[in-house]
Specification:
Helix 2 crosses helix 3 (74-97). This protein has 8 helices and 6 strands, in the order E-H-H-H-H-E-H-E-H-E-H-E-E-H. The longest helix is centred in the middle third of the chain and has 24 residues, at 74-97. Strands 3-2-1-4-5-6 form a 6-stranded parallel β-sheet, with helices on both faces. The protein has helices at 21-34, 52-62, 74-97, 106-116, 128-136, 161-169, 184-193, 223-229; strands spanning 8-11, 120-123, 147-148, 177-181, 196-199, 212-214.
């Protein structure tokens, strides 16, 4: 017998609802090249599903080149991080604003939840400017209860703050909510917040774990699948 419907469904954005992870990787690759670093698969865990500040810090940290060009003081490092984060955000925004396609099955799943009266929200590690651009573009007309960006909590993914905050805004127990994620960091965030997690991997594999259910595509997901994700004591 299936459990009752989730109190709320909490959707990640990049790589889950919209196909933006490739755009983010392209952005990071271009910025890394400008810093003298060639992005490879080894960089993926520090880029895919990570917040802008985390990726900026990684790119500064792995920069290889003329030592005199590297940040030498704390102030210089902070300025370099700020410049790199701004470049990542601006470049990614331009790419997303030009159009980011929905992931297969995303539109149908969102419409089915709306029709069933199940509340849902967007919980993203992207900056507010990027979230707003996607919601006004690719996700226009979707009736999210609210959206959370990396700017809306003190800490973003992989910390539990975003999903914990989302559950609180629904006045719901996190364990009664299902997060839909594609990345290891996003999954870790939802898991740490106490949510059940439906994982639909995109660029990076996600390890199995308690409270994690896997699907190959959102085309396989309906309200019954989401309900079955809920943890049982």
């Amino acid at each position: 017998m299936r459990t009752s419907a989730p109190a709320a469904v909490l959707f990640d954005m990049d790589g889950t609802l919209v196909d933006t992870e490739v755009l983010w990787w392209e952005t990071a690759r271009e910025v890394a090249a400008g810093l003298g670093h060639r992005l490879t698969d080894a960089d993926a865990p520090e880029v895919v599903g990570r917040a802008v500040a985390d990726t900026a810090a990684h790119l500064i940290g792995v920069t290889r080149g003329d030592a005199s060009a590297l940040p030498s003081t704390a102030d210089d490092r902070a300025a370099a991080l700020a410049r790199t984060a701004a470049e990542l955000t601006d470049s990614f925004f331009r790419k997303v604003d030009a159009g980011a396609p929905l992931r297969p099955g995303a539109a149908a799943l969102l419409a089915s939840l709306e029709g069933a009266g199940v509340p849902f929200a967007l919980v993203s590690a992207s900056p507010r400017s990027v979230v707003d651009a996607v919601v006004a573009g690719s996700l226009a007309g979707v009736d999210f209860a609210f959206t959370l960006s990396a700017d809306d909590t003190v800490r973003t993914k992989p910390h539990p703050d975003p999903y914990r905050t989302a559950a609180e805004r629904f006045a719901a127990d996190p364990a009664a909510c299902v997060a839909v994620e594609d990345s290891p960091d996003g999954t870790a965030s939802a898991d740490a917040a106490g949510c059940a997690v439906l994982v639909v991997p995109s660029l990076l594999p996600v390890a199995p774990g308690r409270g994690r259910t896997f699907a190959r595509s959102l085309e396989e997901v309906d309200l019954g699948v989401l309900s079955d994700c809920l943890r049982r004591d």
